[in-house]
Structure formats: structure tokens, C-alpha cells
């Protein structure tokens, strides 16, 4: 809200900007203060507000030389809110997809000053984002005007007079300072940045197999932040210095970001050191927020002891999440086109929202939509090379983000049953190369040498399993899953059974071509040489493969060509593979947050088929030789044992968790199925009466050495049972 003394806002065409209510209603505004004539006629009691969406020029009114402060209204309230007390139930994360309270910058003194090193915003073509084949720009690109093509713009010869004009305009651009409301939000974000020891400890202890960023870049961001501005994040930091840092970050964020910078160090320098942006802080807050969730599980020597216990940790986690959202909103309000850093933040918000609000929540789905929208706006899906490809840090980061968003889009669609938002038919960008993160930030010669060592499919040949190795292989399975979704979630009247069998063979071939480092063996769980960083990707790849087969078998059943043996076998195997996470929780504690969606995404659907087999036995009654791929026989007894473990896993998820209600409902259903299958009186319908005379009590089944019982001293007098704690 603006006071009568606030400088008037002018649009780029020189006309006065209309107030927000008039802009929304698309009616004329007479710009009267404090309430314009149009709003007075509508009996609006609140003063008019003038919110800027782009940095526009401001001019002080003649009748006023000073500004008066006003109380923020509900619509201009600061973004940062007090965190909810730990343990408060019913807390649901609200999506920040609409308007926020972050106001666009204004000059502090209403004048225009020279700003050194400031770049002019890119041309209108860049502001339009990627324009494809059906757009008007594509036609003009063919005739050479290049309205939207980046490469065509780069091929134009520079005009010296145009350069002088651009420099003159850049020199006259106002030094835009954030409004009081935005300043309050920005200061709250800076004050929430942990001190150096705490921030480094949280970053070091963070293990995330879903990390879509190049970790050395994240480390470089962390180092530059504390080396350049470490004094600003101490408890006794000067408020004026923080305010100056806010103005610097806002100014840096408005500068264009070169997405295609070939030099790795120059690409990193765009958002580190004195070029710090709101996206820079947003990247760090993603690490800190996710690390704070598992802080009580990490090794004591990797993180400083927390004061206040888990309650304080929960409050800190809420603060980090709020700052992550604020950095996202601030970056979005200060940039016209977005960039790869903002896309990474959008992608991480999906994961955080799935933990806080649930995988089926509106927040998670809308965040997924925003990430996909920014991906296609930036043109990452058609970012293929026009000639021989020379990988760079910038190009590989863009490819990694594209395929990670493609994968997470299919995961969310699998859980919710909603159509995916990004289809494989629209992606022309090849997958990222299987390169270690350190190679991407190395010199050009080192990077070229490592690229030459890759095989013809783009995988490394040294047998190593990098985070990107997992994502490349997972993306191949998700390309097949996208085909499955076209049939299962779309209308395909001409889908034949032969095409489904061809899809099944394609899935089996993709699993066979998987790198050896990602192939799961049940013995890996007990192998001390296989740590959690290797075990988790292998187990998850196994689940993704089984889920594809599970969907295909269900489609065959829909078309009346189902093989009940195969459907039961893949359901049994998918459920038992998921339960390995729960039965081996100690070795996988660092990813225990994932357990809550793994049980719902993989174990619950497979358990549903097992429940149907118990209620209406069809395979286990007629075929006693059915077994899973690992050779385990599938019987009614083994199904009961597996479902009993599933009940325990579902019960482990607290009802207060985001997915707690869904897990509680699934547990109740499985529990009732077990009761009905086990508590039915012998001889009744649906429960064949066992014949005790058919039981085989031969020596092969009675080879237990009961003499072992004599080795225990059951009546030890020196041990007092009363000493046990109550």
C-alpha cells in the first residue's frame, strides 16, 4: 500500500500505473490518492495499492517531498511467519503458487543513480522463453529474423552504436531498493542463515541420493558465502550491513543469467561471491532443510550437538523450509525468465512438499507443475546440440535437471494415478553423461579426457556408481513407464495385447542392460562392503523395474490376457523388496524419510494383490510350484507372513505424518484380510480343512537339536529379574 507521498509509479510507456484493484478488473484508474475514483464508486474502504511486477521508473509527486510509512495490509504482509510449535497437529504446508507479499524494488530516494556493472535485461525474445514450432517466432526464425532463437541472436554482428546505447541505458537504470515489506522478509532470511560451523556441519552430513545438483558447486556456494559474508551471519551482526547485503542480492538477482556459459568457473562466478543471488541462498537452504530432518540420525562427529532436543530441531527445520520458500519467491519476483538455479529450487520443493504435505497433496502436485512449466519455458526439453556435443558444467546441469524432473513427474503420477505433466514425446534432449561431479568443475582437458572414457551408451567404464549413474538408468525405466501411462491413464482404443507384450519385453531388456553397479542382489543387504550409498540406489532401481512389470501385468489383466502367476509373483516380489527397507532400517537410516512414500508407492499396491489372493485363492490352490525370481516359493503361508510384516511397516508410519492417513487405511484393510483368512473356522467355505494325518513328521522336519536347550543356565542365581528397568 502506498501513502500519498510515495513516488508515483510509471509504466515503461510513460503512463501512470493503475492501482491493483483496477488492474485486476481491467478498468481505467484516475490514480487519486489514497483511494481512486473507481474504487470509491465500488465502496472500497481500504487505500489503493500499487504493486510492481517489473522494475519500472518512479517519479516523486510535486506536492510531496517525503514518504510516510503505513501499516501493511493483509495482502502486503511479509512472507516470513513464525514457525509453528513442534508437535502441533494438523500443520499443512500451503503452496506458494499465487501472489506473495514480496514487493518489487523501488528507489530508496526516488532518484536515478549510476549503477556500475549493471546489465540491461535481455530483449523481448528472451523474456518470452522458449518458442517452439507452432509459435510465431519459429516462422520468423526460418526467414532469419531470429525473434526467439538463441543461436541466431548470437550469430548477429555487434553494432557499435547499439552497444553505446545499451551502455547509456544501463548507466541510467535506477538502483532499485526493496520496499519495507520485502526488506523485512529479506532480513528474516539472512538472519536465519546458520553460523559457519553449523552451516558447514549440516551441509557435510547431508546425504541425499535424489540430489539433482553438482555437489562441488554446492560446496563452492557454501565456501564463498561464509568467506565473503561470514561476519553478517553472527548473532551480533550489524543491521545496516544486513540491509546493504539485501540490496546487493536484490540487484544481483535482476541481472541476466547466462545459462550457456561454457566455462565452468565463469558459470559458477555468476552466483557466488559478490554476485550472490537469492537463488544462491535457496540452493543452500535446500541442503540445510533436508539435513535438519535427519540431524538426529547422523554420526555425532559430523554435526554439532543440538540444544533443545528434537523440538528445537523441528522449529529450525520449519524456519529453513520457510526460508526456502521465501528465496524461491524473491528470486521469481526479481527475474523475468528464471534459470537453472531456480529450477533446482523448484524441484527440491517437490520433495520437501511430499514430506510435509504428502505425495498426494495439492502442494506437491502444484509444485510439480511449476517445475515442469519452468523446464519447458527454459527449453530444456529441446536443448539438444545442433552439432558435435561438447559437454560443459552448464549443459550437464541443465540435462540433469530435465531428467530428474521427468523422473519425479512419473513417480508422482504413479502414486496419484494422475496423468503425468511431461511426456517423453516432447523431449529431444539426450540424457546427461555418466560423469563424476568433480569432472564437471575440472579444467577442459580433464573433462574431455573423462568423456572419452565413456561407452557408447554414455556410462562410465570403471564400474563406479555415481549419483548420475542411478538417475540415467532410472530415467530409462521412466521412459517405458511413460508409455505405460499413455495406455493405462489415456484413451487408447487400438491398444493390442501384442503391444503390451512388446512393452514387457522392452522393460526386461532395459533391466538387463542396467549397469552392474545398480543390480540388486538380496545378499547385498548383509554385505558389509555395500554401504547405504550403494545399497539404496540398487534397491530403488529394483523397485522401479518391478513396478513397471506390475503395471504391465495389470494392463494385461484388463485386456483379459492376464497370467495370474506372473501378477502374483511380481506383486509378492515388489512387496518383499520394499519390506527390506523396514527390516534393515539401521543400515538405511539416513534415508528413512523415504520409507514413508516407499511403503505407499510400492508395498501397498503389491500387498493389495496378495490380499486378493488370500480372499479368493486362484494360484496358490492350483499351483504349489510358483516362485519369485529369487527362487522363493510363494504359498499362502508365505503370503500371510509377508502381509504381517506389511502391517508392521504401515503401523510404523505415524498417523500424524503426511501420508499417515493413507497408511492407516491400508493397514486396516490388510489387517481385516488377515483376520478373515486366519480366523475362519475349519471346514467352512473358502477355507479348506487341513487333514492332520497328511502332515509329514519325518526326520527331515524334526532335525532340531534339542540338546542346545541344555546349554543355557535357565536358573542363574546371580541374575535378578527384578533388576530389569520397568
From TrEMBL:
Keywords: Metal-binding, Nucleus. It comes from the Eukaryota. Pfam families: Fungal_trans (PF04082), Zn_clus (PF00172). It comes from Colletotrichum plurivorum. Residues 59-73 have a biased composition (Low complexity). The keyword Metal-binding applies. Residues 47-131, 144-177 are annotated as: Disordered. Residues 18-50 form the Zn(2)-C6 fungal-type domain. One of its GO terms (cellular component) is nucleus. The keyword Nucleus applies. It is found in: Nucleus. This is Fungal specific transcription factor. Residues 111-123, 148-164 have a biased composition (Basic and acidic residues). GO terms for molecular function: DNA binding; DNA-binding transcription factor activity, RNA polymerase II-specific; zinc ion binding. InterPro entries: Sec_Metabolite_Reg, XnlR_reg_dom, Zn2-C6_fun-type_DNA-bd_sf, Zn2Cys6_DnaBD. Its main location: nucleus. CDD domains: fungal_TF_MHR, GAL4. One of its GO terms (biological process) is DNA-templated transcription.
